[in-house]
Amino acid sequence: MQKAPDAEGSGLTQMVGPAERLWSSGKQTTLSASVIDQIRTVLFAGRLAPGDRLGSEASLALQFGVSRMTMRDALRSLQASGVIEVKVGIKGGIFVAEGNSERLAETIAIQLKLIGISTEELLDTQIAIEVMAAGLAASNATGADIKALHDALAEAERLVDDAEEFTWAAINFHGCVVAASHNRVLAAQFRALSHVLMPLYVRGSSPDVARRAVAFQRALIACIEAREPDAARNLVYGRLQFVKSRQLGDLAKGEAGD
Amino acid sequence: MQKAPDAEGSGLTQMVGPAERLWSSGKQTTLSASVIDQIRTVLFAGRLAPGDRLGSEASLALQFGVSRMTMRDALRSLQASGVIEVKVGIKGGIFVAEGNSERLAETIAIQLKLIGISTEELLDTQIAIEVMAAGLAASNATGADIKALHDALAEAERLVDDAEEFTWAAINFHGCVVAASHNRVLAAQFRALSHVLMPLYVRGSSPDVARRAVAFQRALIACIEAREPDAARNLVYGRLQFVKSRQLGDLAKGEAGD
DNA sequence: TCGATCCCTTTGATAAGATATTTAGGACAA
DNA sequence: TTGTCCTAAATATCTTATCAAAGGGATCGA
Which fold has domain A101-257? Predict the structure, then answer.
């Protein structure tokens, strides 16, 4: 870092003291890892807001006293973790990223796949998310939310005889419930889990199943419109526990070769 | 591994057909983004398992027909998203990553900070996770889990007069409950949320609060030992709703300047 | 005023080479 | 035979240098 005679004392590098250190492991082996660590620390010390410009690749490389390629390595990592955004062109450079819940959902989904989470673990988490969301929806849903729920229900009813299409409509309905909770964390987690669970649901569908699902949806809308969080929670919990046992039962049956 | 100059016909690149396409947006603007997309697609098509070796930087660059630096860019991104692991040395190279729930927790925490999630959203998600975890713990807890819970309780009781230390012990207790659920998704999400919520909890602590918390912990252990999932769920739900209202109340009071 | 063109900044990509790190395998001693 | 140390090879890491592409802004002409 000594190689930056005019870069010292200004910019990012000086702010790196022993701050919060949520993710900094302390001993960094590689140079780029150290740069990543420093930038993250600065960002989460709260001095920089989303949209702020950090500078250009080249100027940052100077400030940190590393070559442009090393800086690039670090920036690509930060970009992939969603910490920064990179823009080309004369007004381009490195910017603090706007939060992106779509990316959050994507990252969760990737990791879930890699970790090799069991179906039961996924379903249980789905239950946790949706039960809470249903309760919150009953408290927080706006008129627009309720209209969206009715629309989703109508669409699902229309498709009750087309197994695959119905599954998508049903998931959309559940998504509307989660959206009505007005909780972005729950929403992101729901999206991630849906990605992973989709194949399962599509497989287990049938017109008979679909009709039961529609009845459930109607009842849930009633709870939400009546502003009864506890009733909504219980309804969703009971319903999803049933869905879970059916899915796991099917799974066992399938594995038994029947 | 042949010197495929334009990378056609061998290795990874040929497997890239229009598969599942969960995350591939189709038109890629940059070369490295295209490489990232191709590798991700191949990985999630299921042909490769965690721990598999993809090759060295150089050989992959040859296979994809790009320069080593472009390949590096792509690899750094994939590494940051936890898709691959990179090892140095004679037996090193690029490997499919083992799932890493610690990384999952870290990524979730980063994104939560960036998105600027509200305290209420975080607390509600925490409630969702812990209620489900408590119910599962009552069903699944092993002898070792229950011993860990007792140990955590004893430690918390010991620290009841030291606000800061007690907060850590209490969070540890909650962590033990989540661990006893034997659900890794819930566990990762709990860790991520804990990172972000920690400062809040530390602030709102006092010996009086601590004694109520210990009483709750004792009751929860009883439910788990008695294998009563519903009782455990209700207990945790009631308790965390109380904690939430206290936190949000404190917040409002603080903001009002008193 | 409007539109096209040029120019400058910044990232994207390539190339060649030096350095650090890890591990396999051999050499040597007990 | 066994354990330890050393070397060599494979590999990522890092550096320097160069050119191409993209994107705004300014200039010039109609």
Answer: Four Helix Bundle (Hemerythrin (Met), subunit A) (1.20.120)
